[in-house]
Amino acid sequence: MNTFEVNLRAKSKRKGFLIESIFPQDSEQKAVQDLQKIIEETCSPEHLLLASINSCLMASFLTAIENSTIQIISFESSSSCTIGVIKGKDTITEIILRPKVVIPYFQNPERARYILEKSKNSCLILNSVKPNIRLDPEVIIELILISKEYKDDFREK
Fold first, then answer.
1. Checking DSSP bridges between strand 74-86 and strand 89-104, what pairing results, if any?
2. β-sheet bridge partners, residue 95
3. The whole model's pTM is what?
4. How far apart are CA 77 and CA 79, in angstroms?
5. Which among 35, 29, 60 has a CA at the least distance from the CA of 48?
6. pLDDT in tens, 138-148
7. What's the average model confidence in pLDDT over 71-97?
8. Going by C-beta distance under 8 Å and a sequence separation of 6 or more, which residues neighbour residue 3?
9. Bigger pLDDT: 62 vs 43
10. In this structure, are residues 111 and 119 in contact, taking their beta carbons and an 8 Å threshold?
């Protein structure tokens, strides 16, 4: 049985994300020839599928919070899939999504979990794959005050 993992981190509500286990350096953009070399050397189709699923969850969540009253400080998500043999064929048997959302102390963590679950259910790519998909969210409450300028972008890490 093989396992693959992909990690994402949103930089802001509208800025891109990082695929840390695929791209070795924290970089938002790569030249096409560099990207091709990285993909050939470090990632498999399984990694790319996980990246698509994970980024779909992230995009759905970020869109949902934009239309909500909830504020977040940061969003990260790791995902993994397990490969097993079913009827003599290698098959992805389970996908686990582990989003980690950091919210200010005055926000309701249950609301964040609810929005994560709704985001999972509304994600096109998640709804298009066969394996069991498990959402294992972590919501962290941080004691921080958010300024007006800070509301629009996440804190840089």
1. antiparallel
2. 81, 133
3. 0.75
4. 7
5. 35
6. 999 998 765 55
7. 91
8. 80, 81, 82, 83
9. 62
10. no
Most confident range, picked from 35-39, 71-75, 78-82, 113-117: 113-117
> What's the sign of the alpha-carbon dihedral 71, 76, 78, 79?
positive
Statement: residue 96 has pLDDT above 70: yes
Amino acid at 99: P
The owner of tokens 């009253």 is: 69
User: Which of 72, 77, 70 has the alpha carbon at shortest distance from 126?
Assistant: 77
Structure tokens at 139: 């919501």
Distances (CA, A) of 92 to 4, 33, 46, 110: 10, 30, 9, 30
Residue 138: CA atoms inside 13 Å, Cβ hemisphere, count? Answer: 13
Encoded tokens for 145: 């005050």
Amino acid identity of residue 44, one-letter, is S
d(CA 130, CA 139): 27
Rg value, the chain, Cα: 16
